[in-house]
Amino acid sequence: MKLSARTFRIQFDLHAWAGVVASLFLFVIFFCGVFAMFREELEVWQEPALHVAPPSESPPSFDAMLARVKEQGPLPRGSHVGLLTHGETRFITAYLFEPTGMRVVWLDPLTGTALVERSRLASELYWMHFFYRLPWGMEFTGVVAVALLVALVSGLWIHLKDLRAQWWRFRPTARPRFSASDAHKVLGVFGLPFTAMLAWSGAVLCLAGLASQGFGSTVYRGQADRVTRLRGYTQPVREATGREAPMLSLDAVVARARASVPGAEGTPRYVELHEYGDAGAWAGVYFQLSPLGPDHFAYVDSVNGEAFGSSVESRTPGFTVERIFFDLHAGRYAEALTKPLYALLALAMCVVLVTGNLVWLERRDPLRTRLGNRVLERLTVGVSAGLVFGAAVYCAANRALPWTLARRGDWEFGLFLGAWALAVVLALVPRGSSRRVGSALCAGAAALFGGVVVADAALRDVNLFTALARGLPPVFLAEALLCALALGCGGLAWGLRGRKHAQALPGGDAPEGPFVGA
Fold first, then answer.
1. Using one digit for the tens of pLDDT, what is the confidence trace for 224-266?
2. Which span out of 123-127, 334-338, 374-378 was modeled with the highest average pLDDT?
3. CA-CA distance, 505 to 503, in Å (whole number)?
4. Cα–Cα distance measured from residue 79 to residue 140, given in angstroms and rounded to the nearest whole number
5. Residues 266, 410 within the same domain
6. What is the DSSP letter of 464?
């Protein structure tokens, strides 16, 4: 179906403006989404002390875990403690919610080893995926996801009539405008189902809370709890009594929770204790999530062992829909296949975003005569290549900084942000070539990613080549991810450096851009 000239122009402008305005934020979302897919693996990789396989003889004892927590200091009445188990290492994560903030401790129930959190690499890159550290970051991410949906629908609409001819066409030796356009279309079409699913599910998940507030204020006239119940997120509200009481065995509490929820099997993923030591104490027990299936959790009185709420009672159609969207968005099904596939498609989407900006610039201002277009070009290079370089610095800092350094996690995160900011500043320098800056940043990222893998192979017992034999697949997957990023960044750096001039300007100068100009 051929569009009229006016309709085509409207759809094209809608596609271009939605893409350009949201492109840099979307690049951050998709690139950090690669690390979000491998968050659990990176949590083990980032701390060498955790490189011990879990015992296979019997499931861990939650009473033993709680005993290790108490060794860190007495638990005053009314304490709030969370215990997170890991299938890939026998260490557990203990979250101690204190008046001054949350304290994270890694504990080995067998040896009694206790480690303070020394790196937040996996968590920070995961949170960056939805701008968690920014005020209203989750909601902002949802708005950006909506912009991506607009760009996808309008892009498909304007290219629909030529889709068959353009599907496989890629001319890497053509002028930047055409080679970038080919890459933009080919990768965009192949990744369209994946990208549309991510955009839709991401928008629903990120904006659900904001929409709930709107419904609570309007439809239900301020009764926000009614919307919460409809969404299936109701949690018990039990006030502390101020009276001390003996606590049941935590293993017994977990057994009561398992018995109260049909289908709950295996070791719980997370157990949280509320008002511990008080007569009104209770525990939330959350079992492993089954892909595209229902949740299994229960709330149990820690004094008498009575279950007073569970996933069976709170399950609603809204909760089921959000849960399915979350599983689809996070790839929580056939993970051995979907994790690498999602990561590959996310990186392809990063290429689509960068080439989309280049096509915009080449069509509207190929010589970059306008200041706004020059700034957009340099910001595209600085933000995208700078983020890749910053992530490589983050991984290198994780291995290079002394493990005894105070506030080590803050130092790592600061180096990551500093490297990213420095890259943006270098890209914005007027006299430099943005193509050269992009090539240098990609080359630096390749060297750092590859250097971390090589250093681990030379200096650490658990590395890319020994992790599987030692029963630590997460370390192998994390190292394989770094290898893939090193190869990808190295190839991109080589391609940018080897790119020929697209055309010459009068006087022998070449047009400046990320792929043109010396």
1. 677 777 777 777 778 888 899 999 999 999 999 999 988 888 8
2. 123-127
3. 7
4. 34
5. no
6. T
